[in-house]
Each structure stands twice: as structure tokens, then as C-alpha cells.
Amino acid sequence: MATPDVLQLLRDSIAASKPPILTKSSDPDTAEANRTDSFVEATHLYFTYPSPQCLPLETTTRFTSTTPDTAQVDLRSIFFAWQHKDVTVPEYIALAAELDKQLPEGQKIRNLVFVERLDLITWLEGASEESEYIKPIEGAGAVGDAANRAADVAGGAAVPTVGGSGIGVTQTVGGRPVKVIDARLQAIYNGERKMGDHNTVLRGIKPTDFSHVRKHAETFLGRRKGAPSARPGQPSKTAALTARPAAGLSKPLHSAVSSKRSDPIILLSPSASSLLRMSNIKTFLDTGLYVPPDHPTLSSQTTANLLHITRTLHSLSEKPYRFILVDSPEQFKPDYWSRVVAVFTTGQIWQFRGYKWREPQELFGHVLGIYVGEKGLPIPAEVKGWGSSVKTFAVERWDERAHGANVDQDTRASRRWRDRETVEEVWRGIEAFMRGRGEWRR
Asked: What are the Cell division control protein 73 C-terminal domain coordinates in residue numbering (predicted)?
């Protein structure tokens, strides 16, 4: 029986909502009875999907960590990172260090850096099909070669022939059986007319430039829509579209969709005066309810430095988008900035010190600015000075007696119904910005 690929097995189990469990037994029949929550006691990982099996925690995976040195990560470290995917980076490091003190030498947890852990979790959740840290499965190249040879034969490529009575015979080459066709039969095959279906006839050997079609199509589309002529000094919409390269011929330099991890990013303000921080932003954008960031009802929630929110933007795609929310670009790679679609700001310029674009006018020329203040209070002069690229919104003042912990959830939601209106306006602004960029359409 072939050894299963551990990473793919873990990913499939997560997708089937049947994650593996830690166990002290190597026998699948007794693994459930010997399950444990301790990495110190556990010796194997018990998978129930697609078939029961136990794999040692020391099993080496295809995931390669490059910090501090290049090494393949074992199953113990992979599963530990997955179990603690929602904790902050400092907490993850502290938990790994505490566990290492109890584990024997040679079984230490491999501490994955932020980018590696994010890449691993994204791949395991199925949000990405590729990972720069995961090596291809061995033998995939041989399978591809076999497929290519089969395609060559199907396309009429030459096949080894022998003289004889016209009956195909089998020879062995390199330990593999190879069908050899009689020379006369091959001559008949060569004289046949090559047939193809709809797909093979339309498939070319090189990309085709359809830019000339775009020019003619835009002329007719422009007439049908009755678009007004361009203002003096501004290029027309037709000219702007024809100046673009044909779709599929050249890849945009900073295309977020072409990225392996194409989730759009929203940056929050780390300021203590901000009404929306990591502790309450998910409640606000997900459920349409504003709760102060330091409210006791939120104190039990883990303040992570990375959150995910799923939202369907119907004008772009019927498939939901997964947004990544962070309050600092400290762990950003250079290409991550092409995926930033919105920045929540309080008007304090020091927020942009670590940004790619430190000047507010330049920053909000590339991303959407969002200011959320309290209704009745003036908008900061700095925010007004940054122009229309910063959208301003307001939420009603929080009243502890009317909205606090002593009020049930339904009553609180009904009394703060205007929050939902504000949230929808925020999402409409983000959707309009992404639609204007064009590269987020699916």
C-alpha cells in the first residue's frame, strides 16, 4: 500500500469536517480509546477520513520552512500550527516554547514565522491551490510524462513498428511493456485523416492577439450605450480601453487576482482612539452591530492580529470573497500591498509610518480610505483635507443603559438598527472601489 501524502490527507480531512485527533496508539482500532489532547503524551495522529489510519507525529511533510534554516517540517509542528491558527503571533510563539520544554530532544516544535504559518493555514483551508513552501508530490512529473506520451499517440505521433503480418505485438523496453505496431498497419494509420473535436480544433499553439477585435467592439458598444464624448483634455474611454493589452497576453505587474493568495486585505488603525479595532471589527462588519472595542462583552474574545471575514460582492462575483483584516503591515511582503483595498483611519498621520505610501494623498490614491466617527462629532480637518478618496461614516453614540450587557442581544440589535445601514454603506464603498480597479472580477 502506497504511503499517503500527509499534508494532502490533513487537508482532505479538514475539508470533510473530520479533522484528525491526537492519540497514544498506533493501532486504528484502539486509537479512539487512547485519544489525548496533549502533544507530550501523543505519539500518533489518528485520521478517520477517508479511511481509519494512524500516522506518527515525527512523519516528515512536504512543507519546507526556511527560517532560521531550511528544513522539512514534521507532522507534529504542522498540526500544532493548525490547532493554534487563530491565536496571535506572540501567543503562538509562547505556546510553542512552553511545549518544547516538555518534549524530548528531537521532537521539538518547529516555530513557523508569520508568513509561513499564514501560507500553511490558507492552503489547508482550501483557499489556495499552491504554496511556495510546499514541494510537489514525488512522481507527479512521471505521471505528466506518461500523460504526454499518451497524448502524442492519440495525436498520431510515430509509434515503434516491426515487420510482420499486421498484428500488434508487445515488447519490453526498460522493464515496461510497449505495444509495437506492424509497419503496414502504421502506414494505414499515417494515411488517415486526423479528426478533432470542438476543443482540439480551437486550441492553438500560441496566444492570439485580439486587441484589434477590442477596438472594433468598443466602437459599436460605445454607440449602443450612447456614451458622451470625452471632456477636453481627457482621453476617451475607447482610447483608454484600446491602450490596454489584450486579456490573457500579459500579466499585470501588481495583479491581486494573479497572486496565489488573492484574498483582499483591509488595514485597521492601531490607534487607541479608533472606534473600530481588532476586538470589535468582525462584529461590526459581519453582523452589522457596533460595540465599543473595550466593552466587557468582547473581553472574553481573543484579540488576534489577523482576522478573516467572508463577504459576497454581487457586482464582482457570486463567489464570496475572503477578506484579511490586520492592524499593522509589519509582516507584509512587497506584493501584499497590491491586495490592500481599504484602510480605516482616524486622521492620525503616524498610522502610515510603516506603509508603502506614507503620504496620505499618495496612499489614498491607491487604496480606499474609510473614517468611522461618532454621530454628532465633527470630522477631523485632516480627514477632510484628504479629499473624496476617504469615505466618512458615523455610528450612534453607545448608551450602556440602552445597549449594554444587561440588554439581550435581539433588543440591542433592534435599538441599533442604524449600524446595519452604516455597515452596508461601508461595504458598498469597498465594492465600488474594487469594481473600479477591475482586477478583482472573477
From this structure: 261-433
